[in-house]
Every structure is written in structure tokens, then in C-alpha cells.
Amino acid sequence: MPRKSPFKINLTPHERNVLETEARKYTSPYCNVIRAKIVLLAAQGYSNDEIASRLDIPRQIVSKWRKRFYYERLMGLQDLPRGGRPSSFSPGGDNRN
Fold first, then answer.
1. What is the DSSP string of 43-59?
2. How far apart are CA 46 and CA 65, in angstroms?
3. Is residue 96 part of a domain?
4. Domain that holds residue 37
5. Could you give the CA distance from residue 49 to residue 82 in angstroms, rounded to a whole number?
6. How many DSSP H helices and E strands does the chain contain?
7. Is 1 a domain residue?
């Protein structure tokens, strides 16, 4: 029996417009397009399992972004800063010693 997400998504017209634009952009990073599509499908009432199947991604990924959007709206779809040591490579520079 499929699980039903407790995070029901209802979009404002502005949110729908932003997400539809992002989902159609060929120049957007792939992860942003997928996140937008996850939320749009969730707003149409699809389950996490159905969304995962349609987009060919793990259900856990769908669940993560659905939940983040539910709590943080559009801001929740942005990448969070990553921890760890800063990069030791400069962009475009020669890093040989």
C-alpha cells in the first residue's frame, strides 16, 4: 500500500509561475529543474512514489524536497551551504606547486 505524504502542497499563483518557469528552462541546473517538477507534481496531488517513478529518481529525494518546500516555500528549494574544509583550488587558476 503506497504511503501518503503528510505534506500537502498548495501553490500560490506566484509560486506556480516561478516553478513552471524553472521547470522549462534549458539553461537551469538539472537539480533546480527536478526540484521544481517535484513540487509541481506534488501540487497536482501525486504521491511521492508516483513522482519518483515519473521523474526516475529515488522516493527519498522526492520526500526531501516536498518537505522542504512545505516548510520553507520557494526558499527551501535552494541549496544550503555545505560544511567542511573550503576548496583549495582557485577557479581557473594554476594550482601546481
1. HTT--HHHHHHHHTS-H
2. 14
3. no
4. 13-76
5. 28
6. 4, 0
7. no
pLDDT tens digits for the chain (97 residues)?
A: 557 788 999 999 999 999 999 999 888 899 999 999 999 999 999 999 999 999 999 999 999 999 999 999 988 777 766 677 776 776 665 555 5
Q: Is residue 4 in a domain? A: no
| Residue whose C-alpha is closest to residue 6's, from 71, 75, 76, 72 | 71
In this structure, what CATH number is given to the domain that contains residue 49?
Answer: 1.10.10
- Cell numbers that stand for 88 in this block: 583549495
Q: How far apart are CA 13 and CA 26, in angstroms?
A: 22
DSSP-derived secondary structure letter, 25: -
Distance CA 77, CA 67 (A): 10
- Is residue 93 in some structural domain? no
